[in-house]
Amino acid sequence: GIGCLWAILEEALITILGIHPHYQRLGLGQLLLYSLMRSAWDRGLERATLEVAASNTSALSLYHKFGFQDVGRRRGYYQQTGEDALILWRGHLHDPEFEQTLSQWHRQAIARLSGYEVRWEKLESVIGN
Asked: Which pLDDT band, with edges at 50, 70 and 90, does 16 fall under?
């Protein structure tokens, strides 16, 4: 799988989160999203946003589980299909209960993956000051 976020001012823009089809529904998406949200929290970011295909019900379910809310729609966003993208936001990353929620998500993801060998690589690039 792959996940990426850009930290722009106090916002985390999640630019990609994807799992190879053979490995979907194992909890890897949850672990990647947890990692991105934890990174946003560690950096002191206040909110997170992302875009997702309107028909991607699995991804929408995961994002809603993580507290993202639908706030807009980009009509015809995906040029190949003409499909709309939904814009999702998750605010209040530094409310006191959010750190506890992060820990809960992490425990759930690890428990789900307990029977698998998972190799984790974190690549971090910082551009600018």
From this structure: very high
Clarify whether 51 is annotated catalytic: yes
8 A C-beta contact, residue 73 and residue 87: yes
> Is 63 an active-site residue?
yes
Q: How far apart are CA 69 and CA 3, in angstroms?
A: 19
* pLDDT surpassing 50 at residue 63: yes
CB-facing half-sphere around the CA of 75: CA atoms within 13 A: 0
Active-site residue (options: 23, 34, 46, 63): 63
Looking at residue 13, what is its pLDDT?
98
Q: Where are the domains of the chain?
A: 2-112
pLDDT at residue 49 tops 80: yes
Residue spans of alpha helices (H) in 43-123: 57-65, 96-112
d(CA 56, CA 123): 27
Instruction: Judge contact between 37 and 67, C-beta under 8 A.
Output: no
Q: Choose the catalytic residue: 11, 23, 46, 51.
A: 51
**CATH architecture of the domain with range 2-112:** 3-Layer(aba) Sandwich (3.40)
